Amino acid sequence: MSSSIQLSDHFTFGKLLRFTIPSMVMMIFTSIYSVVDGIFVSNFAGKMPFAALNFIFPFLMFLAIIGFMLGSGGSALIGKLLGEGRQEKAQKVFSLLVCSGAVIGLCFAIAGGLLLPKITVWLGATEALVDDCVIYGRILLVALPFFILQMMFQSLLVTAERPRLGLLVTIISGLLNMLLDYLLIAVFGFGLKGAAWATAISQMVGGLIPLIYFMSPNSSLLQLVRPEWDGWALKQSCFNGISEFFSNISATVVTMLYNYQLIRYIGEDGVAAYGVIMYLSFIFVAIFIGYSMGSAPIVSFHYGADNKNELKNLFGKSHILITIFGISLFLIAELLARPLSAIFVSYDEELLNLTIRAMRIYSISFLLTGYNMYASSFFTALNNGVVSAVIATSRTLICETLAVLLLPAIFGVNGIWFAIIFAEGMALLLSLSLLLKYRKKYGFA
Question: Is 47:192 a contact under the CB 8 Å cutoff?
């Protein structure tokens, strides 16, 4: 059982998988219950509400990015403190981060709700999309503080040696979202509003359950105590997690840019097709995100304990596993491109064919993505947020932005789909060079 595995253990392949599989499955479920919204909206409300959902969702994720940053960066600092034997300090830092995330989420929710109509227009939404974007966005903003906490707890539960609890919470909130999607969209016909409330309620549940757990007496490594202001700890957590911050900001910006280019080259059908690819990609890439998230606290602990042999062990085994994951995901995506795309857009043959063609190009990137995600997460776990941020930002904001702007001018619409492959390839060269540069400093190779 993963609950019997401690961060201080020596990790074999079996033990490493047992500890990280809950995080991988958790991220898959997180992706799936977002995907369910798209399936129900596309099939029961139509492709215009579906396009609106896909158009505004990146902005909502932009506001929630603070959860990724505080969760991953805070976990790196807390894991290092635990490795150094400073558990009381780790508890106080943990409590400060949770309070900070909730307060920031509330402020973002209020400001976002007030400015959403103007922001939607500024992002380039067509007149046909604006009203639906505002409806969906304002409902989800109600749950933003809880969503930020949910994202933070995905990392912090692993650091607390409770990855299975994180998985259980995600399954509960995911199944709730699916049930509410069915009831509110398919049964009662509330359309896009129903999808928004289904997601918002599930996010509230996903944030509240871990909060209640950590507020109560428990046997994990972490528990909420009276927080104390510690500017250094908050700054260090943000510094550690800056790669996740920039990575998600970059992904959000790039997604908006994709939508802009697709509207220019194809129209609303292009945005809908890209939305399907993003939903499917969320599920596939969740394997890499979950593994990186699940293994990061182990790296942080052994870095804090100055156990270089275990760092070498973790680094070597991780790259073998990521290679296996990447090849498997590529083959699955190529073989199942048609049936997976049909789940969303089987009602429109032209849109379906566009989506299948795009998915088969996009899936090549799965062979490269895992290495870059792990490299960025690995440096975060080593409390080196700058190097992590360089990898993450170069991968998306620089390489992918250039590709999505330039390649369509050369290859047309296919250039948009090839952009991710170009970006991952360039980022992989950078990741490898930085790993070689720092291998002796940290002793992981």
Answer: no
Q: How far apart are the first and last CA of the chain?
A: 29
CA distances, 154 to each of 150, 210, 416, 419, 440 (Å): 6, 9, 32, 30, 31
Q: What is the pLDDT of residue 349?
A: 85
Does residue 247 contact residue 392 with C-beta atoms inside 8 Å?
A: yes
Residues 13 and 158: their CA atoms lie apart, in Å, by: 18
Q: Give the DSSP H/E element, type plus range, for residue 318.
A: helix 308-345
| 8 Å CB contact between 391 and 372 | yes
- Distance between CA 345 and CA 366 in Å, rounded? 23
Cα 416-419-425 angle, rounded to 5 deg: 165
Instruction: Give the model's confidence band at 22: pLDDT under 50 very low, under 70 low, under 90 confident, else very high.
Output: confident
Phi, psi of 384 (to 5 degrees): -110, 80
Chain segment 360-390, per-residue pLDDT in tens: 999 999 999 999 999 988 998 888 878 988 8
Cβ pair 195, 53 in contact under 8 A: yes
